[in-house]
Amino acid sequence: MFDPHPGPLPLQREGAARAQSSSFGETARTLVYAVAIAVLIRSFAFEPFSVPSESMLPTMQVGDYFFVSKYAYGYSRHSFPFSALPFSGRVLAAEPERGDIVVFKLPADDKTDYVKRLVGLPGDRIQVKAGVLYVNDKPVTRTAMQSQVYRDGRGNSLLYKETMDTGAGYETIDRYRSVQDDTEEFLVAPGHYFMMGDNRDNSQDSRFSGQVGQVPAENLVGRASFVFFSTNGTARLWEVWKWPATIRYSRLLTWLRPA
To answer: Which of 89, 174, 194, 254 is the most exposed place for a label (fewest CB within 10 A)?
Structure first.
């Protein structure tokens, strides 16, 4: 039988195979580059986190997604994915400030991420008396907000503004008298920091030595910068048509540094 295409077909098939192989290689390289860039940004610049609990109300709400500045305090092994790099201490270390919102690894396991407000630096003496925070025997200025009441699913709470001696100001809530309202005096150890939640009666923090305790400098992951997304969580993942109504638009791009 006469073959109208003698010879060219094997070459065409070979060329098509080479093109397919080249396309696959380019895709693989692009994915590798994208992953590498994402890891670099996450490790050295900004990392996204979400708020899982009410411990930082009213400043941060469950369903908030926020970026953490990784370079703010320098870098430790916890700056990298899975705390993978085996070195101790911090590189390019910078001192945090009282009033900063900080993400850190829980000292008890060096794995769990916590977000709290830093209220005590190394050498500070920290105590809470009748709900008032004292730093080095001086009460932090605490002013009732004009509305005075913060309302959420649990009911009403008193709303206050605290102002550090550095001028850093932020809001806290106080639901009721509790064991957290009166503590012993804590001396912050060298190379450690004292953390508290803004929701003072509903926060596991440095006031509880057995659960959290003082946080070593090495465990600091970074400083919370701003909320980039927020949802009230009422729509299920597959209920796409409900997503727009669940977004808290007023919280988008909320700055998290103290005023």
So the answer is: 89
Residue 73 neighbours by CB under 8 Å, 6+ apart: 90, 93, 94, 95, 96, 217, 220, 222, 223
Per-residue pLDDT of the chain (259 residues; tens, 9 = 90+): 445 555 555 556 655 556 566 676 777 777 776 766 766 666 667 899 999 999 999 999 999 999 999 999 999 999 888 787 788 889 888 999 999 999 999 999 999 999 999 999 999 999 999 999 999 999 999 998 866 666 665 656 788 999 998 889 999 988 777 778 899 999 999 999 999 999 998 899 999 998 999 999 999 999 999 999 999 989 888 888 998 999 999 999 999 988 7
- CA contacts within 13 A on the Cβ side of 28: 6
Residue 203 is among the residues annotated as catalytic for this protein: no
Query: What is the maximum alpha-carbon separation in the chain?
Result: 104
* 74 CB burial (10 A radius; 0-12, 13-18, 19+): middle
Separation in Å, CA 70 to CA 18, 53, 74, 128, 221: 43, 22, 7, 30, 7
Whether 116 sits among the annotated catalytic residues: the reply is yes
**Catalytic residue from among 55, 79, 157, 203:** 55
Q: What pTM value is reported for the model?
A: 0.84
Residue 112 Cα to chain centre, angstroms: 11
From the list 79, 105, 116, 157, the catalytic residue is: 116
In this structure, the strands spanning 46-50 and 192-196 are: unpaired
